[in-house]
Design goal:
Length: about 100
């Protein structure tokens, strides 16, 4: 693991919140998604149709969180709608996911 990856790992562990995915505990930073990030994936009309609230999750690239995964954060289930991975050279540094609440029956 490179120095920048170690720094990010410590940062996520210190400032991030815990969430679980498939029974594994992870850490990440949850924030409102920037409009530019939403527009990267969706048209204005599609953004209006998305469930609310929407969250952006910034976390390490491992574990890999595929689109369609369900995460549990703050005792609520969240669906990963979109995923974007940021790389430095050939190595993944972090991933950002767009999360929406899982509809309740």
């Amino acid at each position: 693991m490179r120095r920048k990856q170690r720094v990010l790992k410590r940062w996520f562990s210190r400032f991030g919140e815990s969430f679980t995915m498939e029974g594994s505990a992870c850490h990440g930073v949850f924030a409102l998604p920037p409009n530019a990030l939403l527009r990267h994936f969706y048209t204005a009309g599609e953004i209006d149709l998305l469930g609310r609230p929407l969250w952006a999750l910034y976390t390490l690239p491992t574990p890999y969180i595929p689109v369609g995964s369900v995460l549990v954060w703050r005792e609520q289930s969240w669906n990963a709608l979109k995923r974007l991975e940021f790389r430095l050279g050939n190595e993944a540094v972090y991933q950002v996911l767009i999360l929406a609440p899982v509809p309740t029956p």
